[in-house]
Structure formats: C-alpha cells, structure tokens
Amino acid sequence: MKHIIFDWSGTVVDDLPPVIEATNAVLQYAGRPAMDRETFRRRFKLPYTQFYAEESPHVPLAELEIEFRRAFAASQEPVTILNASLAFLEQAQKDSRRMFVLSSAPAQAVVAQAHTLGIHHFFEAFHAGIVDKKAYIPQLLAEHSLDPAELIYIGDMVHDIETARHANIFSVAVLTGYDYPEVLQNARPDLLLPDLEHLGRWLSDR
Ligand SMILES: [Mg+2]
Fold first, then answer.
1. What is the pLDDT of residue 53?
2. Is the domain of 44 the same as that of 98?
3. How many domains does the chain have?
4. Judging by beta carbons within 10 Å of its beta carbon (0-12, 13-18, 19+), is residue 115 exposed, middle or buried?
5. I need a surface site. Which of 15, 81, 91, 160 has the fewest CB within 10 A?
6. Are residues 40 and 126 in the same domain?
7. Could you tell me the distance, in angstroms and rounded to a whole number, from the CA of residue 114 to the centre of ligand 1?
8. Burial class (CB in 10 A: 0-12, 13-18, 19+), 132
C-alpha cells in the first residue's frame, strides 16, 4: 500500500463550520428548519443528492447547489487544517507516496483551500465536486494508472468506505470529520483510527 487517495473535508481539513452555515442557507432557501452541528452530523450523508432528496425533495438539486456554493463562498467561518495533516503529508512525501484528493466539495473551494493552507503541492491531482465517489473512482484510477492493491483510501464518512470497498482499495476511516465513530464502525472499514497521526504511526510500523 504505497499511494494515497484522501477525502478532503473532515480528513485533511476541518470545514464543518462553513459547511453547516452553507447547508443551513440551503435549508432556509428550501423552507426547512436549520440544523445544529449535532443534527447535521447525524443527518448529513453522501452522495449529498440523497441528503437533499430527504431534506428538501421539492426543490430542484441544481437550485440547491447554486445556493450552497453562494453561501459557502460568502461564509466568514474558517476552514482550518486538521492538527495531524501537515506532518502526515510531509512524511508521505518523503516516503515518495503519490497523493490524490477525491472530494464532493466544490472543486474551486477545495483547490483554493489547499493553496491558502499551503498544502496544494503535496497532491498530484484534485478530483473535487464529485457527487458520487463510488461511481467516479474507476475513472480516477484509470486516469492516473493506479493499481487498487497499491492504494490506501482515507475518509471520514461511510460513503468513503463504500467507495474504497467498491474499488478493492484498503479503507481507512478517521474520526476527525463528519460521521460518528459507531456509524463508521458499522460500515466496516479495514482500519478505524482517531486521526492521521495514528495512521502515520501505523504506516511506519509496517
Ligand atoms: Mg469527508
């Protein structure tokens, strides 16, 4: 397991504050009540099309996406790098690992965050704005000639684990993001760890 596919939100960065704010703007647009952090983490799921189909089935998705991007771009809430990310990325680079991002967050936002946080150069490619990662991942593997047996996929949500399993990639769930531990556990990742620091140690012990 040499190379790494990272989910972005909740795995490399903490973007929950602006995501919750933007989601609440969408819910308000749809005439639905706002969610607090706990409710959002319990209800939100990927693909987000499923989440909005449940929460606001009467509003066309295209409208909701426009509203989300507008509210996300306007949010003053910060996106921060998770504590262990930088050290993990530096070590992975030293170990000559190829690194990729696969994210459902808007592509422009993800790339801009990577630049702002000074970590853009670690990644060979960004595949962001991907609604259904499971449907998309074969394309990512083909484009970069990646062998699933040489990969690790790290994510913080059930959809990440399902995506990895679908592509026969070793799945690592981290607890720094959106889904709660018991929810991730139920999805049976190959490895469940508190954060990237623990994964770094696990990799160096191998
Ligand atoms: Mg995530």
1. 96
2. no
3. 2
4. exposed
5. 91
6. no
7. 15
8. middle
- Residue 158 Cα, ligand 1 centroid: separation in angstroms? 9
Q: Give residue 1's pLDDT.
A: 86
3-state secondary structure of 96: coil
Same domain, 130 and 198: yes
Other Cβ atoms within 10 Å of 110 Cβ, number: 25
Cα–ligand 1 centroid distance for 7 (angstroms): 5
Average pLDDT, integer, range 101-105: 97
Q: What percent of the chain stands above pLDDT 90?
A: 99
Compute, in angstroms, the gap from residue 155 CA to the centroid of ligand 1: 6
Ligand 1 center–CA 17 separation, angstroms:
13
Q: In angstroms, what is the span from residue 44 Cα to ligand 1's centroid?
A: 11
Whether residues 109 and 185 share a domain: the answer is yes
Can you give the residue range of the structural domain that contains 29?
Answer: 16-74
Give the residue among 156, 145, 19, 160 at the shortest CA–CA distance from 85. 156
- Measured in Å, residue 3 CA sits from the centre of ligand 1 at 19
Separation of CA 137 and ligand 1 centre (Å): 15
Q: 163: which 2 tokens?
A: 């995506």
Closest C-alpha to 177, from 25, 37, 21: 37
| In the chain, beta strands by DSSP E | 3-6, 13-14, 80-81, 99-102, 125-127, 151-155, 170-174, 191-193
**Residue holding tokens 């799945």?**
171
